[in-house]
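Researcher: Next sequence.
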Amino acid sequence: MKDQYDLIVIGSGPAGEKAAVKAAYHGYSVAVVEKNTRFGGAGTNTGTLPSKTLKETALYYSGFYEKGLFGVDKELERSANAQDFFFRKNQVVDSQEEGIEKNFRLHGIDTFHGAGKLLGPNKAGITGKDNCELNGKFILVATGSYPFQPEGIPFDGCYVHDSDTILQINRIPKSIVIVGAGVIGCEYATIFSVMGSNVKLVNSREEILTFLDREICHALQDQMKEDGVDFIFGNRVEDVAILPEEHEHNVHAKLTNGEPLQADMFLYAAGRSGCSAGLGLEEVGVELGKRGTIVVDQSYRTAVPSVFAVGDIIGFPSLASTGMDQGRVAVTHMFGLHEIEKISEHFPYGIYTIPEVSVFGITEDEAIEQEIPHVIGRAKYTDMPRGKIMGVDEGLLKIIVEKHTRTILGVHIFGKIATELIHYGMSLVENRETLSDVISRVYNTPTLHELYKYAAYNALIEGHYLDKPTGH
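Model: Next structure:
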């Protein structure tokens, strides 16, 4: 260990890890400071990987995609308890954390455990297991975000949870109220409903996931209703109270319209804030934005030239995928490397609900608002041979196509492994490929990738480029 480095990274989540490794790969000395005992940040420990693993676990224990598929429903010898539910999640988290630590060792990166704080433009202090001061040519802040906890809600980590503590429950609730119909709220609503919980999803707006194409959004919402999620729109929750264990429902709350809510558990999943408190940022001249975020320029440099910031701490889009590349790009600008100098302005969204949703490019509403002459192509999972084999009874791939040039402008998918299928659609949009490009290619059959070809043919028909078929 030493006290002089080319780069000091505060935070070992996806953004911090990838930045540290890239700098070390190019021969620069790097120190990583992590306040928690485990590496990986929210991406590994409380967010991305745990929640997605729980989704797969819920599918396994519920037999969601296998019900009736082979003539008999899958039956478990015993019902799943919380220990079963979290078993695989814990394995994945442990394996990923070990992989991150190994990656640091492989690249000769020094690691320090403790709370980091900027003592100057080129100095950081560490308080905790490792008490010391480090000097660095550059400092990168990648401390991530934490769940927003509004006043008046008695978060106790037992009955009333945020998106961190919900991963530590010791039982699967019979009923749960979830506040917030964004990505996190919708993901957990589908997970718990599939596991048999009675789920009420409360949202102040009149619909979920407002950034999605409306047709795809409504398809997801309809499926969630079919799976037992009860939507309460245009309301907020107030006066949340925890009752003693002898009561039938441990959490009692009231909606803004006066209606009571009762459930075994309560999850508040509406917003996150940047982990910037206590870092000494403003003292050294770093500008802060809303909810504790850090203001940066296009190179991820703050108002202090030697200090950069990436990942959730800088706000939107707050995705692990974008944070990783932000970290890599920041290192490029720090050391003048002749590599990728900015990440793409456009990126896919993956929503790990049951079923999944993933999108890239413009929506149908955006095409209308921008007065782009367009046609729509659709293909259903149930019409695909692979879909029939898999036994899925829902799923839709939708493409937005510029009418005159037949260029594909947007791809929107609702259904199983949508987050995997979207990347081919992303390539189509980025390369401005046409319907002819899609239908001229040979795809493995039976596969779900045939959805693209069928959607392209459907767009050709809807755009009156082809006569409508009279049969199959």
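Model: Residues 443 and 461 are 21 Å apart (CA to CA). The first helix runs from residue 14 to 25.
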